[in-house]
Write a structure and sequence with these properties.
By secondary structure, this protein is an all-alpha fold. Helix content is 86%, strand content 0%. The two termini are 12 Å apart.
C-alpha cells in the first residue's frame, strides 16, 4: 500500500468511527430524551467531527483519483 492509500484508509476509519458515534447519539435520543447544555455541546462536537472526517475522506479520494487519472505516482 502506498502512503496515499494509508491516508485514505485512515480517513475511512475516522469516518466510520464518527458515523458510529453519530448513529449512537441518534439512538440515544430516540430512546431517551437527553437535554441540557452538555448534550447540545456533545451533539455539535459529533457533527463537526463527522463533517471534518467526511471532508477529509472525500478530498483524499478525489486527490487519488486525479493523480491516477493524470498518470502521476
Amino acid at each position: 500500500m502506498t502512503t496515499g492509500a494509508y491516508r485514505v484508509a485512515r480517513a475511512a476509519g475516522c469516518l466510520k468511527a464518527t458515523f458510529a458515534v453519530a448513529v449512537g447519539m441518534n439512538l440515544v435520543e430516540a430512546v431517551w430524551d437527553p437535554g441540557g447544555i452538555a448534550w447540545r455541546v456533545a451533539r455539535a462536537a459529533a457533527s463537526v467531527a463527522f463533517t471534518l472526517a467526511l471532508a477529509a475522506y472525500v478530498a483524499l479520494r478525489v486527490r487519488g483519483w486525479r493523480r491516477a487519472r493524470s498518470g502521476r505516482p
